[in-house]
Here is the input.
Amino acid sequence: MRSNSARQNAIQAITTYKAEASINFAENRPMDFFGCNVFDDKVMRARLPKDVYKSLRKAITLGERMDPSIADTVAAVMKDWAIEKGATHFAHIFYPLTGQTAEKHDSFLMPDGYGGVIAEFSGTMLIRGEPDASSFPSGGLRSTFEARGYTAWDVTSPAYIMENPNGTFLCIPTLFLSWTGVALDKKTPLLRSGQALNRAARRVLRLFGIEPELPIVSFAGLEQEYFCIDHNFNFARPDLQVAGRSLFGARPAKGQEFSDQYFGVIPQRVLSYMMEVEYELYKLGVPVRTRHNEAAPSQYEIAPLYEVSNLAVDHNHIIMSTLRNVAKRYGLKCLLHEKPFYGVNGSGKHVNYSIGNRELGSLFDPGATPHANAKFLVFCSAMIRAVHRYGGLLRATVASASNDHRLGAHEAPPAIMSIFLGDQLTEVFEAFRAGRVEDADNGKPVRVMNVGVDTLPPLPTDPGDRNRTSPVAFTGNRFEFRALGSSQSAAGSITALNAMMSESLNHAADFLEQQLAEGKDMNEAIQRYVQHVIEEHSAIIFNGDGYSDVWHREAVRRGLPNLRNTVEALTELIRPDVIELYESNGILNRAELKARHDIYLEQYCKTLRTEATLVVRMARTIIFPAGMRYQGELAETAARMQAIGMDFRVDMLRDITEQLRGMQDAVAQLDKLLSGMDAEEDLARRAKGYCEIILPAMNRVRHFADLLETRVADDLWALPSYQEILFGK
Here is the structure.
């Protein structure tokens, strides 16, 4: 019997795989080595001079500018610590607008002038690096020949040691800017937005008589979903290898409809892989806590505890890198694409967002006292207003060619931004709008006279069921933003959330200050503020099924935008009110926002251009030849049978011929459309063309190819099937 070598080799590799235990958690207890490769507070306190430690610690905890005079001392201690751990190089780690992690390695070793070398690492080398910026996207912020770019040390995110089989190197989280100070990365606006949030939140807290010593910061818990398949299947599929998703593939007889994958027993090889991922992350101080099977076959999730947003984003980039790197040791391939397989759930990255600090806890946490309740009402109202005013911006931060396949399907929130509060909390806000609350004892309506006396009805830990169809859902003491894609950096979405909350909290402070100036007491001012927000912004609150057609029609009636794809969504970045939001808070200026709009639109075009080219090539060189061979075999069989006087039903031959002709025409049409699209110079029109013309043309080719897969003899089909990929453990 004939066989396809790539498919058979992949299957054989799975069936003959033998796990090799490399970690013994009984001998290496996580509590003993957690954070051992991090230049954290414990290391700094033990190694730095006391005055230097206090100065640096003050900069880290209070967000103040670091005294540059201590840089040389910190650098010398950090170098000695890294060299003790085997490091020969240091690397400034940054996140350019590609959305990926970037790093430039420099050696500690310098010639001593006598034929030898010394280890050198100065404060200047720690604080600033100079990678070539010419090959990173800038969106017109600089000319191509202007190559200079700077990395600047982020003191709030600790340096760490990254291990490699041949050694280690010191990693230093940094910002990435042009020589004129323009932000070319995702970390710079995130840090700027955090400063704006602190200023605005402190204004509101001051009205409550609260003056916290520590800054108000945003926190994030980032749940990372991913697929894990045998790496042989990846090498046997050019589309998975290059595009990260399958551009062809008939749906298997069984998918996820039995719900037997979700939280099921983790396959042994995958569990061993997960354990080593966690082992590596523990050493880097990443507080991963959860692992489980996700809904789709071969889909999984890893989730850390919540952290300060800036650190959470850094740790998530480390998680993604670690997932990819460790997979190779187990003969696996980690797929972070939002939709690698058609017909089963895609992958997201839920952002559990809150604001507060160690002194105050979460400011989204309903309290047990009237004072705490009043504070919660103001901050929760500000979030409602923020999502209503800037829902389009939030949608734009998750826009990408890959995430478009996931948003709006029955597996992820719709592209329409709304906020879920749960019935109980919604009733509380509606009562404020109507000027009443429900008496907690007898359920009778009573008039709201004083927010500080009439407390919220007692809220359980979870005041409402989780609504998985809502993009933004209140979940007890935080809001869960569920629209972010699995491969995306969370920095953009958290920056937007911080900016939105900053503007909304400043509005709250202005409103309350005006009420107080008019002679109202604080409780009455809060009541009027909550009423005002609910009257103006309750259209964003929706507790029902976000997947339903009824909601789509209702959203139109409410005036909520439905930005169905990346091309529509990215225009939100350059809306006048968004530009004003970012500029007034010192986060990004007009030119920086326009650059991001153009870069992301260009990335969208390049993604679809790559995928469309792959569709044409794979159709012509893999799928069409397989169909032609099978067609030839059927024709030969028909001729032989007719020669000896036997009947041969030609339905199958006609069907194969029809699909081949259809695919041939579809491929030719796609190739022609691609040539025309390349000639379009206007970026916006080109992106719209890829969305509305190229993508449907690609899907038409896939339609015929997937039909052929269900008809062509299995031993002639070259591409591993969904059944083999998803269920081959």
The first strand starts at residue 87 and ends at 94. The chain has three domains: 34-185, 195-588, 602-727. The radius of gyration is 29 Å. The domain at 195-588 is CATH 3.30.590.10 (Creatine Kinase; Chain A, domain 2).
